[in-house]
Structures are given as C-alpha cells and as structure tokens.
Design brief:
185 residues, mainly alpha, two-stranded antiparallel sheet, two-stranded antiparallel ribbon, 5 helices, rod-shaped
Length: 185
C-alpha cells in the first residue's frame, strides 16, 4: 500500500512545464494562463506583448486577462465616482453662476438706489437753501414792517404831541438810533 500512496502523491504533484520559457507550473490551467499573459513568455512565442492583454473600455489601459475583471470593477467604480463629481461640479458651477448673477443684480439695484439717494440729497439741499433764503427774506420783511410800524407810531405820536404842545424830538431820535444799532448786529 505504501508504494501506491507514494505513486499517487507523485502523480498529484505533477508539474506542467512551459514549452517556451521552461517555467514549471502546478496546474494545466496555470500553464495556459501563463502562456497567454506573461510578457517574457509571449516574447518567446513571437507574439506581441499586447496579445495576452485586454483593453479596459473605461481607461483604455491594457491589463492581463487574469486581472481584467478586478481592474474593470475598480475602474468602473472610479468612473462612477468621477461622473458624480463632475455632475456635482457642474451643479456647483451652475449654482455659483446663479449666485454671481444675483450679486450683479443686487449691485445694480444698490447703485440705482445710491443714485436715487444722491439725487434726493441734492434736492433736499436745494430745498434747505430755498427755505433759508425765504427765512432771510421774511426776516427782512418783518424788520421792514416793524420799522414802518414804529415810524408810523412815532409820527402819529409826534403829531399828537405837537397838537398838545409837547417837544418829543429827542425821544424819537434815541429810538431811531437803537433800532439802527440792532440792525447792524
């Protein structure tokens, strides 16, 4: 029995040797894969290195058949996240542009309101100047009326005093000098 079990062990450990590069492999599938994908072996076969490679449709990178599925899965995830980022980036760019437009709109509105405010200030200053000028005119008129009234009263008083024989020229002159000095101030 011992000899049979040793023969079985030897059969199980059968090695597969590559005809091109003499590498020993444990399985027939491993040998086939080796001959299709290993660059050194492909050169020895007279094949182009790219013959044993598959091109990824996402990134156009050439990868071995053995690692193609893993690469494609990884590349698909990258592409998906990249498209989400691009989409997100486009949405953010759109939002930024909308905000810029809003800012420009508000700047224009602010400028218009500033201009209106400036115009109102000018109009207010004109009104204040007109009011001040009218106040000066009114003050002059008031003073003129007061002077007229006083001169009328003085004349009237002077006539009454003359009729009664009273000399009031000195009193009238004092009053006239007082009103002259008030006007100078």
């Amino acid at each position: 029995m011992d000899s049979k079990s040793e023969d079985n062990k030897d059969n199980k450990k059968e090695k597969y040797v590559c005809n091109f590069c003499s590498k020993e492999l444990n399985t027939k599938a491993g040998l086939i894969q080796h001959q299709k994908t290993v660059k050194k072996c492909l050169k020895l076969q007279g094949k182009n290195e790219e013959d044993g490679l598959s091109e990824c449709p996402n990134c156009k990178k050439k990868v071995s058949i053995r690692s193609y599925k893993r690469h494609k899965k990884s590349c698909d995830l990258k592409k998906e996240s990249s498209s989400k980022i691009k989409k997100s980036s486009k949405e953010k760019d759109k939002e930024i542009n909308e905000l810029k437009e809003s800012v420009e709109k508000y700047k224009k509105e602010l400028e218009e309101k500033k201009n209106i405010n400036d115009n109102l200030k000018l109009e207010l200053m004109k009104c204040i100047n007109i009011i001040e000028e009218e106040e000066r005119k009114n003050k002059k008129l008031k003073n003129m009326y007061v002077e007229l009234y006083i001169s009328y009263i003085l004349r009237y008083r002077s006539e009454i005093n003359k009729e009664n024989g009273i000399d009031d020229t000195e009193d009238n002159n004092i009053y006239i000098r007082d009103t002259d000095s008030k006007d100078e101030n």
